[in-house]
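Journal club prep, notes for RB
We'll compare a predicted complex against what the paper describes. Inputs for the DP6 case:
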Amino acid sequence: MQKTTVLAHSDIALIKYWGKKDKVLRLPANGSLSLILDALQTTTTVAFDVNLGADQVQIDGAVEEGEKSRVIAHLQRIRDLAKQAGLIKTDVFARVMSVNNFPKSTGLSSSSSGFAALTIAASQAIGLQLDERGLSILSRQGSGSSCRCVCGGIVEWIDGDTSDQSYAVQFAKGDVLPIRDLVTIVAEDKKQISSTEGHDLAETSPFFAARQQQISTKLQRIKQAIQARDFITVGEIAEAEALEFHSILLTSQPNIFLLYPGTVEVIHLVRKLRSGGIPVYFTINTGFNVHVLTLPEYEQTVLQALKGLSSVHKVLASGIGDKPQLLKEHLF
Ligand code: DP6
């Protein structure tokens, strides 16, 4: 059992995972598609140690009970697999330390990169030999969207009807369509509702059934547009998807209203730039921060315009990232 450190990137879904067919296994209601983001990173070190009496978990220098119990449940999945494989006879506890280079719990998907890094580091540290599909299936059970972050580039999560059929694959390499994501931070408050709680409410929206009827067509259309390197169509679909997703949030019972004045200001700016001829679109997750999508040649113009808004605190400029990597330097 060797101490292992993994760096994984977060992602932004252009077609969102929202709602679950199976809550325990985290089987999604629909397939989804995301960009892996090279600028948003989680680094995690895991060491199993026979001398520990319990798992020790630290994320960004703190121990938060809700997160800790999810991490421990995931470590237990990995220990159970290791027992089945004959690698350990009884439970061995682990020390886990994780750091993000971006604000967590603000709707920037720190759990997607976090669980991908944890899955790869812990399974390798305990001696499991899993291929990318196996890692994706395992990671999905910790946090659904993290199954995409074990891959690199532009990634599709195939929804699947059973656990073995629900995993992510690379759909295209990043250079097929080199989208830039200007991750625009308007606040670093902790969001009021977790994605996990939100998923459970999806079906209470009267719009959810309508979404399900056309979501696979939408996924096909965006895949065709990516292959055709047609950024305008990709952007149009991604923006419409973000608005549809938020309309589900707004009409869930109880409703989920996450947008801040700054969020709306950024949206208006994106539309104004677009009417001036710049190909730029937005998408938003369960939060108030905005992912502003454009092409490399327009990045500086869009960046300067965003920085001109008083509501914008920070912009993290990201390209499309690779799959996770093993690091030689450990966090402890
Ligand atoms: C809006 O993967 O965080 O970001 O499986 O309960 O951990 P759990 O949910 P999570 O949900 C992410 C939702 C989303 C859309 C997406 O990333 O596809």
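Talking point for the session: The domain at 176-318 is CATH 3.30.70.890 (Alpha-Beta Plaits).
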